[in-house]
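Hey,
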Amino acid sequence: MMEDLPVLMRKISRITFFFLFLGCLGWAVRPEWEAVFGGFLIGTVGSLLFTWHLAWKSVRVADATAGGRRSRGGFGFLSRAAIGLLAAVISVRTLEFDPAATVAGLITAPMATLVLGLLSIRRKRGGHPSDERGEKQ
């Protein structure tokens, strides 16, 4: 499973960069919505940073466990929360962007992770969801 992590992180990064592209494109097309697109962009960058941090911590914990050592700490929730809070403070207080757009940006990478995980589960089962209910096709 850990050998799939770099592939998964590349996919998540590409999806997040696509949303960053959409935010930049939206800002270019609708400059009067600067507060919305700016908040979304800052939130998305924060989202990508704390996703990378979680992947790094996961590898460290897995390496420590595989080596028979006890890992110090957990998965860095406080660090990731601090990254999200920093992105929100910079976006809302410093740059005066829209807080709702910032929060929407902060959930971009976790939502990409969720969607990729659900697609992976579906692929592993190797079928259509209606197959398990016994429906005729």
